[in-house]
What we know:
- This protein has a five-stranded mixed β-sheet with strand order 1-2-3-4-5, covered by helices on one side. A five-stranded mixed barrel has the order 6-7-13-10-9. Strands 11-12 form a two-stranded antiparallel sheet.
- The chain is of the alpha+beta class.
- Helix content is about 25%, strand content about 30%.
- β9 and β10 (about 145-150) form a beta hairpin.
Amino acid sequence: MRETATPLSIRILDRIIEIRGAGESGIAAVRASYGHLHTPGGTPDLTYSIEATSAPALRIRRHTEVIPVERPEDLLMHFDDDLVVQLQLLRPDLYFQHAAVVCLDERSYLFPAPRGHGKSTLAWALLQHGLRYSSDELGAIHPTDMAVAPFSRAICLKSNPPPPYDAPDEPIEGQLPLHVPVSHLDLSPVEKPKPLAAVFFPRFDPDSGQPRVREVGTATAAARIYSNALNPMAHPGSGLDVAVDIATRVPCYELVSSRLPATCELILETISSIS
């Protein structure tokens, strides 16, 4: 298939990813999600091609691998999932957490949790309180200096957050779930690694009247960090050594979230108490 759209080259985790398409519509959603990471040149470390087909609707080609996309609205979901895996292979030196990351005063705050625990919604809400966006999905930690590198794709919200944190009226067109491009943020996303200052383990409890936070011990924190690691086998001690090191070097908290405004206030209060 003849490719006519201008390729998109982006830099993520100090690696260059090139995305091609057989027309602008083929990579429009990827461009809307990742276009702010555009890099003007360089040899790609990884190349994708978004191709239109009759059945399935689209396919993502990476070298000889083909990822079928049955519905056009699922393109970003499939692309994101594959890219996260490939970045782990390109940067095995980083310790990857399934986590949201926000920054304040040049320091990173990590929120590791499985899917469905409200990481993205919580990150989106915190951004409305003056924090800066680093990631809603991937915490890439340098084990030596404990700095967290940004992965600032569009924010993926499973549903529209409650007031006063409603998502903007112009998400990325035609994609599910709701993807909010970083152009809608009041502050620019983080561009460089920032030192990790604290870890919060969020758990949403709709029946809780008030959010709660409590500091947890090293053993508990290390176990939770390890359970959210994506590439533990790439690190000494099968990744447990890094988890223990993180839990030892930064404060870690269990966070029971409920109403978003109160939860954000509690997080900000906790952050302000960290020396």
